[in-house]
Amino acid sequence: MAKVVRAIRGMNDILPEESFHWEFFEQIIRKWLAIYGYRNIRTPIVEQTDLFVRSIGEVTDIVEKEMYTFVDHLNNDSLTLRPEGTASCVRAVVEHNLLYASPQRLYYSGPMFRHERPQKGRYRQFHQVGVEALGFVGPDIDAELIIMCARLWQMLGITGLRLEIGTLGNAESRALHRARLIKYFMQYEEMLDEDSRRRLHTNPLRILDSKNPKLQEIINSAPKLIDDLDEESRAHFETLQQILRNRGIDYEINLRLVRGLDYYNRTVFEWVTDRLGAQGTVCAGGRYDGLIEQIGGKSAPACGFAMGVERLLALMLECGEDVSRPTPDVYIVHQGETVIDFAWKTAEFLRNEGFKAILHCGGGSFKSQMKKADASGARYALIIGDDEVLAQQVTIKPLRENSNQACVELNAVVDIIK
Ligand code: ATP
Ligand code: MG
Question: How far apart are the C-alpha atoms of 286 and 136, rounded to whole Å?
């Protein structure tokens, strides 16, 4: 036998036993985005490496160690599988000048790729749904993004998520803060781990995001950006909170919220659960007013978030959402050369009426076909033999309840299974 080919580690197949959960989720997502007026944008999965380096930032986990970057040997271009969606979305918006006339409410969804250590809730190919509002200065739109998340959790039956919000200020206040952080962390240089020491002078904010437990005490006592915050950012943050309070959205202020990407400013937020172990952040986002200009567009404000589909699905099921398995309405059992045409006709007729009909394929005895009908989960078996064809009727047999079978015309089948 030939050697078995396996999927790549950390990149999962989603089999039918699981994929109906995804379809349920996707249906809700579409409805949710539609009622808030967000429109879909679809960008390629591969982009020039430079796009991600420039937008996400050189001194970040993603760019330093998680990107799937390769050379397209046919023309020597350096390409990268997208590790996130914002950069591609902004690239497309700039390239096609979408902000020319008015701001845009957009969303994307699909697989993202990061070379991380695979574990529960962390994969190398994972899926995100991302929402980007481009051309709005906020903070009303910042609030809209958060409020729409809260509604989605309701629609998915998810409870107990904690909202953390923070602010990163503007570029000047971050520069001030950066200088203070470098000064502060330099006192503890000996105690920092390798990553943090390397980032001390390039990107000290990232030290705050370190997950190393040994550093938490030093991090907790570090200078807080809120003390260096510029007046406009302070007002922006205040108004955001006011809207959230008016809408009854609970939040905690987390002044250590940094986010793993460089492009954020002002508002940042995360939705976190304690029910999924270490991988507790299911949705994260914020404002990125500088990004559009940074990748070559005309300066425009923007704000967005991305959520991890795998983590949200796990949480939805954990919260007890009961997703019903899709089953056919009828399974059509038939036997004999002369009946097949009537069986086809019956199947297509029921499909025209919007029913889910499986027409048995592959022959076999009535008994074995009935077994398959039962295993399919169908509510009814339709049995078609010579007698039925003669009468132009079908025998309908309930499979999930104890009632008798009946021989009826096709129109009557519609009434019965409705
Ligand atoms: P983390 O701190 O868990 O590494 P992150 O800050 O790198 O997350 P983002 O880039 O903000 O994550 O992505 C948004 C969301 O996408 C995350 O909150 C999470 O739900 C999901 N996500 C990120 N990386 C992965 C992954 N490797 N596998 C599964 N989901 C992921
Ligand atoms: Mg990460």
Answer: 13
